[in-house]
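Justification of resources, computational component.

The compute hours requested in this renewal are based largely on the per-chain cost of generating structure records like the one below. Each record pairs the submitted sequence with a full structure-token output. That output is archived, and it is also reused by downstream analysis tasks.
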Amino acid sequence: MIFSTIDDLRKSIEGIVDLEDNRVTILDESRLREELVDYLAYSMALSTDEKVREAATWIIRRVGAALGIMPASIQPLYEAMGKESVSGFTVPAINLRGIAFHSAQAVFRAALAMDAAAILFEIARSEIGYTSQKPAEYTAAVTAAAIKTGYRGPLFIQGDHFQINAKKYRNDPSTELEAVKQLIREAIPGGFYNIDIDASTLVDLSKGSIKEQQRDNFAITADMTQLIRNLEPQGVTITVGGEIGEVGSKNTTVEEFEIFMEGYLEELGKNASAGPVTGISKISIQTGTTHGGVPLPDGSIATVKIDFDTLESISQIARSKYGLAGAVQHGASTLPEEAFDRFPATGTAEIHLATGFQNIIYDSPHFPESLKNRIYDYIRSELKGEKKENDTEEQFIYKTRKKGFGRFKKELWHLDTRVLEAIGTELEDRFKLLFGKLEIGGTKETVHQIVQPVDVPPPTPDSLIS
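The structure output for this chain reads:
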């Protein structure tokens, strides 16, 4: 399922996709969906030939565009939510850490069954590294999944937690900031038209005033916003998110939010001579959750209490005072099912979901025990330095097994078809449940009316230039 050379790729697309003058024309959509898109996706992700990977990625993107499937910014929808002309649902932002092409198909099958389209696919700065999925690859995997399932419309691809590492920042601020800026420069051409900046790691609660506590946070968020505006393609307003309270730390207050926003807008205003700068459209806050949940000594997950009052009050003020879509809830995928109904009811704009889907993959009764043992052995031997002193074996494995997705990427993508289909069905069932509780069923018509994607063709790889 992986092309060895560019010549192999060119021969395989004959009669299905035409690349005359480097423009893509679909000749046989049935064969494209049934066979070619699989070959392209696997080659894009796993080929050892860089030219093959680049060519497969480009063809997937251009075939998607020909079918009306292309990256888009969710900004117009969030602006409508800020004006309260659209409401009643919470947008799920889904992190696909492993077998992204197959996992995304489960998302799209659930979406098609429910006429849902208000969905973000995202990957964080840290996940890009340990899952071995660069932005261009992630976008192509999601696009290929949409082609495969027959999904049509805008794809909201998001850079999640483009985060400033506090320790690295303290040691060398300019180098750490440049690393995040370089990621932004890579992500935007890769189709990431939604980016969450996270400088909340730099909030210093030892400072005397809230403004001084938040200063580095809002100043850096404003600086990154300006960079994004300078880089965004013509006709695209990239959605930018900010973050106040680092997830896993103390809960956010309304006062912190308002002071952050005033400082942030003041910083953006310093560039007013060049014209107004579009600011953030949403704000991530801390309400009591932790990324991945809190594993207990036996490996089970502790029950947490979410501060829904804070979510509701900050979301309301975000809309009425600043025109934002509302507040964003992180670290929610391991919450009990009954909690999800409350997010739309409190006006939460967006909710981030990751570890729960990872758990479905690893804990599926269909997942090969032999491969799981190999992954866990790798974690025990190669990542033992990450084990905390008080961690039990179960806690350590639970918190670290996410890093198996990159190291064993090839083995995971090459799981038996029946295994992938069974895991895909489990994921699909979970997505349907969550989409129902988050009230995004039926959002297709609204999204397609409000969001008009702009086709931004990526540069044609040299290997495909006639």
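The mean pLDDT is 93. The longest strand covers residues 153-163.
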